[in-house]
Amino acid sequence: EAQLVESGGGLVQPGGSLRLSCAASGFIFTDYWMSWVRQVPGKGLEWVANIKKDGSEIDYVDSVKGRFTISRDNAKNSLYLEMNNVRAEDAAVYYCARPQLLREDAFDIWGQGTMVTVSS
Amino acid sequence: EIVLTQSPGTLSLSPGERATLSCRASQSVRSNHLAWYQQKPGQAPRRLMFGASVRATGIPDRFSGSGSGTDFTLTISRLEPEDFAVYYCQQYGSSPTTFGQGTRLEIK
User: Fold this and answer.
1) Which of A31, A53, A92, A105 has its CA at 20 to 30 Å from residue B77's CA atom?
2) Chain A 45-104, CB below 8 Å of chain B: which residues?
């Protein structure tokens, strides 16, 4: 069964850094683009970033460009999100999600999410 | 970017009733690349539909999707107790992919 498990969330100060991880299992990781999607508790969903199967192409939502870095380690079946210069508006549950086939696609597999809290 | 507007914001119905949820796009959604998700408290979203009208594996046939261009609908023919949740639409025909703000389906 395909599964995604996030970790690394927690409390970070404004301007601080945090690294999120997502461990994939149950499918061939290198066959898929991968994405991060976030959700402010009680609010809607926002796509954050995605990365091509081999890591050669990357996209970000404008609000995180220059601050967040998505990466993957195919040998470890893992996806990462390095968050730098974190802002209050970055506080959210961050989901690792698998686009079903294409770069822009519906997300067929989601992790359980990891919470990022921004506070001094 | 394409803005998706879902209506109503909250829908109050009873089990056994029919639910009709709307998702309207600010521009035409290319190739009907529109998905629907269900989210229950404390859980990740679950994909229900993609391609506007294709049910995902394991989704009961009481769920159906329709529409094209800028207007899309998710219909639940007869509500079961487990259907009460928040529903989101997502367009993936244009970059960046975007989501609607959600419709809360609550028990009347």
Assistant:
1) A105
2) 45-47, 59, 61, 95, 99-100, 102, 104
- DSSP H or E run through B13: strand B10-13
pLDDT tens-digit map of A22-64: 999 999 999 999 999 999 988 999 999 999 999 999 999 999 9
**CB B50 to CB A106 under 8 A?**
yes
Place of tokens 């969330």: A9
**What sign has the CA pseudo-torsion B77, B82, B87, B93?**
negative
Q: Quick: pLDDT tens for B12-57.
A: 999 999 999 999 999 999 999 999 999 999 999 999 999 999 999 9
For residue B87, with 0-12 CB atoms within 10 Å meaning exposed, 13-18 middle and 19 or more buried, which class applies?
A: buried
